[in-house]
Design a protein that fits this description.
binds S-adenosylmethionine; about 230 residues
């Protein structure tokens, strides 16, 4: 595993997720350490997470997708499913604690496929790859990305077929409350309107090449990179 974090914003995200790793895993229901208020917030959050999980897996299953990079893989739930679908997976995350949880989930739920996954402890934006991937999964990542255009410019170099991404919605009480909570923990958080997504796509020349699914508190976006 390799780690290189140069940007202050990224360092704050890394610190946040190294501390939050096992609680985040709890949102998926893997721990009962969460208190009643956290459990209520998790319930709201879980809905959008389940919808985007299904949207992603329904698309990644096609045989033309052989390799996937899971960017900001977190606790590795997607990695397990991609492995079960027969894909070769690269899992990259800033937070080493997340990668340890991901490794444990893979060993438990896809034990016969452990040779098909590589873990990278790195900032995706700073990491140069010596090969391209058919697809990329960016779930819950744009929440922490200061310059989404820069990230899409990099994806255009690294990905040949499809990108699956989520964008948390701006506006409304729950979005505001989440932003306040993250501010209090010194973690940057970025929220998006449909108009923001359109602007990003047009800046990177991907207009007409993406579809958006409204998942309630967030958007699922599939982009055709071919
Ligand atoms: C909210 S979690 C989502 C985890 C997983 N994708 C999921 O949906 O279950 C976001 C993850 O992105 C990672 N992350 C944020 N910025 C990153 C970057 N620039 N490069 C790699 N990982 C990053 C964080 O460390 C965190 O584990």
């Amino acid at each position: 595993m390799d780690s290189k974090v140069v940007n202050k914003d990224t360092q704050e995200v890394k610190t946040f997720f190294d501390g939050y790793a096992s609680d985040f895993d709890g949102i998926y229901g893997h721990t009962d350490k969460r208190g009643p208020i956290d459990k209520l917030a998790d319930k709201w959050f879980r809905k959008v997470m389940i919808l985007r999980f299904e949207e992603t897996l329904n698309r990644s299953v096609k045989p033309s997708i052989k390799t996937i990079i899971d960017i900001g893989c977190g606790p590795g739930l997607y990695c397990v499913e991609f492995l079960k679908q027969g894909k070769e997976v690269v899992a990259i995350d800033l937070a080493e604690n997340m990668l340890s949880i991901a490794d444990a989930h893979v060993k438990k739920h896809a034990s016969e496929k452990t040779d098909k996954i590589t873990y990278l402890h790195a900032d995706y934006l700073e990491h140069n790859f010596d090969k391209q991937f058919d697809s990329a999964c960016l779930m819950g990542l744009f929440d922490y990305i200061k310059d989404p255009v820069e990230l899409f410019e990099k994806l255009k170099k690294d990905i040949t077929k499809e990108v699956y991404a989520s964008f948390p919605k701006s506006g409304g009480f729950l979005a505001w409350q989440r932003k306040v909570r993250y501010d209090m923990r010194n973690c940057p958080l970025y929220l998006y309107s449909l108009e923001d997504i359109k602007t990003i796509m047009s800046k990177v020349g991907l207009e007409g090449k993406y579809e958006v699914v409204d998942c309630g508190r967030g958007y699922f976006v599939k982009v055709d990179m071919s």
